[in-house]
From TrEMBL:
Residues 8-186 form the Tyrosine-protein phosphatase domain. CDD domains: DSP. InterPro entries: Dual-sp_phosphatase_cat-dom, Prot-tyrosine_phosphatase-like, Tyr_Pase_AS, Tyr_Pase_dom, TYR_PHOSPHATASE_DUAL_dom. This is Uncharacterized protein. Keywords: Hydrolase, Protein phosphatase. GO terms for cellular component: cytosol. It catalyses: O-phospho-L-threonyl-[protein] + H2O = L-threonyl-[protein] + phosphate; O-phospho-L-seryl-[protein] + H2O = L-seryl-[protein] + phosphate. The keyword Cell membrane does not apply. One of its GO terms (biological process) is signal transduction. Pfam families: DSPc. It comes from Coniochaeta pulveracea. Residues 123-165 form the Tyrosine specific protein phosphatases domain. Belongs to the protein-tyrosine phosphatase family. Non-receptor class dual specificity subfamily. One of its GO terms (molecular function) is protein serine/threonine phosphatase activity.
Length: 225
């Protein structure tokens, strides 16, 4: 299966989904999966987000936007505590009774959800984490959340995730997930988040060195660690 053949959305854990760019702007996908909160990891902003129907489903307060490229010089680890807190605060497992599936009327797909009875379908509160492909950035975030929630290591969580979806965090994000595990899911020594723990401090030093080498033309930005 190529990356382009991946489904737009996959449930990784009860109520927690990984998706691609299409999943974040398609009302049919969002409603069929009871998505009421979303984490957008990247720089994309589709026009659909500004539609009235869209904001009926996902209010601004339930949409966390995390600017982040799929780059080996991106530090997503520093944002993980807040992202995980957001997911935890919005996530509730879907009820077992799935008999109420929906047929979206044409006007709803255009954004006119004013007359649509949402109470029949949104009894669950599910969270979508998406990036562009639903492979690297979103997988990193979901892995970090599950690691913290379950107190499990990176390799175990990723192994279980890959049974559900073909995910592949880039080399930098894999390294950061290992740091996340080593710092026990909080990278700071202090509440003000000014002093990184030793393992994270060393990682930041290595990251700074890599950026210097890239700027000097001694290292390609996509090369691993």
């Amino acid at each position: 299966m190529s990356w382009g053949e991946l489904p737009p959305i996959t449930e990784i854990a009860p109520g927690l989904f990984i998706g691609n760019y299409e999943s974040c702007k398609n009302l049919r996908i969002l409603m069929n999966h009871d998505i009421t909160a979303m984490v957008s990891v990247g720089y994309m902003r589709p026009k659909e987000w500004d539609g009235p129907g869209y904001r009926t489903l996902i209010e601004d307060k339930d949409h966390l936007i995390v600017p982040c490229g799929d780059s080996n010089t991106e530090d997503i680890l520093m944002r993980l505590p807040d992202i995980c807190d957001f997911i935890e605060s919005r996530l509730h497992a879907k009820p077992i009774d799935l008999s109420k599936m929906i047929e979206i009327p044409t006007h709803a797909m255009a954004g006119g959800l004013e007359d649509f009875d949402m109470s029949e379908y949104f009894r669950g509160h599910n969270v979508l984490v998406h990036c562009y492909m639903g492979v690297s950035r979103s997988a990193t975030v979901v892995a970090a959340y599950l690691m913290r929630k379950r107190k499990q290591g990176r390799d175990q969580v990723l192994r279980e995730m890959k049974m559900k979806r073909r995910v592949e965090p880039n080399q930098a994000f894999l390294g950061q997930l290992k740091v996340w595990e080593d710092v026990e899911y909080y990278p700071w020594e202090d509440e003000a988040r000014k002093i990184p723990k030793g393992v994270y401090k060393f990682y930041l030093q290595q990251l700074a060195l890599k950026k210097v080498r890239i700027s000097q033309g001694r290292l390609h930005p996509l090369e691993g660690w």
